[in-house]
Each structure stands twice: as C-alpha cells, then as structure tokens.
Design goal:
Blueprint lengths: L6 E5 L5 E5 L1 H11 L4 E9 L3 E11 L5 E12 L4 H22 L11 H16 L4 H9 L3 H11 L2 H19 L14
Antiparallel strand pairs: 1-2, 3-4, 4-5
Helix pairs in contact: 1-2, 3-6, 4-5, 4-6, 5-6
C-alpha cells in the first residue's frame, strides 16, 4: 500500500504555508486502504444558479445493508468561475468527496479542506474583495421593493465583480422579493 500524498503548498493571509492534499490523492489512498467500501453521491439541489451535492462513504455488510461512516456536502455557483459555467456539478461533487474522505481520515494533517477547495475559496475571496462594499446593501434595498426592482439592480447597476460577490445571497433575496406586494396592489379589495 502506498502512502504517497500529492499536496499543494498554499500560503494564507498571515503568511503561513500549509500543504493541502488533492482530492485524487485522497481518493487513491482511500481505495488502496478500503477497496470494498462504497462512495455514494447525490445531487441535493441543481438549477441554473447553484448546485449542492452530498457524498456518503461507508461499507456494505453481508446482508447488503449500507453502513454510513461519513458524509459531506458542497455547494457551487455556476457563475463563480469559467470552469463552473460548464462544470459546476463536477466541481461540487469533487469538493464534497474531498471533505467526506477527510472525515474518514484521508485528508491533510492541518485541514479538512482539499487543495482544490482552498484554491477555489481564495479565488472567490479575491473576487469579493474587488466588489463594491455597498453592492449587497443595494440589493437588499431593491428586494424590499420586489422582484422587478431586484432584477433591475442586479442586471443594470451592479458590475460583474459585485454580482459575483453577492451571488451567495441572491437566492435568499429573490425569496424575500417574491413576497413583496407591489404598491399598485396595496389598498385593493378588503384593505379599505
């Protein structure tokens, strides 16, 4: 059995460098150590905006019962990167798999996160840092006026960087905006 790990050195904001193991390295080590174990993946949510995946790792006994040992989730937004525009589901599954493998002991010594996950998070953080501080406030105020206003601010007012920085909040804001009763409908029948 080989214990060789493929790692990527990543430096954090405090100047500390840590080695993060890649998901393929984790998976290879796991398969060598547990060839009979099972990995199940499920799509929890998928639409034009977001993908959520759950990965379960366990083993099957002689009576064909699955025994869950670890599970993990991941979420990816399709507009988060060029890769996610075409492969958000695949990236999401890989992230969830990396986390689940860490939960059963096949991860980096210093972190549950895989190299791929940390690199992706650093990319998202730099996008957020470039965004206008008031972008989320603009969207929150627009949501209070309804879906039409929210969509207008999203498409016409915000830059691409601002939209990317606010993407994790847009689903909640859409839900809030959809509950707003437009002004022209207020004071109608029964509200006199």
């Amino acid at each position: 059995m080989t214990e060789e790990r493929e790692t990527v050195p990543i430096t954090n904001d405090r100047g500390q460098t840590r080695n993060y193991e890649t998901v393929p390295s984790r998976l290879r080590r796991f398969r060598e150590a547990n060839p009979a174990w099972t990995i199940n993946t499920s799509i929890i949510h998928i639409d034009d905006e977001c993908v959520r995946v759950r990965v379960e790792i366990g083993w099957i006994d002689d009576a064909n019962h699955f025994h869950l040992t670890a599970s993990a989730h991941a979420e990816e937004y399709r507009n988060a990167s060029e890769i996610n525009a075409t492969s958000a589901l695949e990236n999401c599954e890989t992230s969830a798999l990396g986390r689940a493998l860490a939960f059963v002991g096949f991860g980096s010594a210093d972190s549950i996160a895989s190299a791929e996950e940390v690199i992706g998070a650093k990319g998202k953080a730099s996008t957020f840092a470039e965004a206008k501080p008031g972008a989320l406030i603009l969207l929150q105020n627009a949501a209070k006026k309804g879906l039409v206003e929210l969509e207008s601010v999203w498409k016409k007012t915000l830059s691409a960087a601002d939209r990317e920085a606010c993407r994790p909040y847009i689903t909640k804001l859409k839900r809030e905006a959809s509950e707003v009763v437009p002004e022209e409908q207020k004071g109608g029948f029964g509200n006199a």
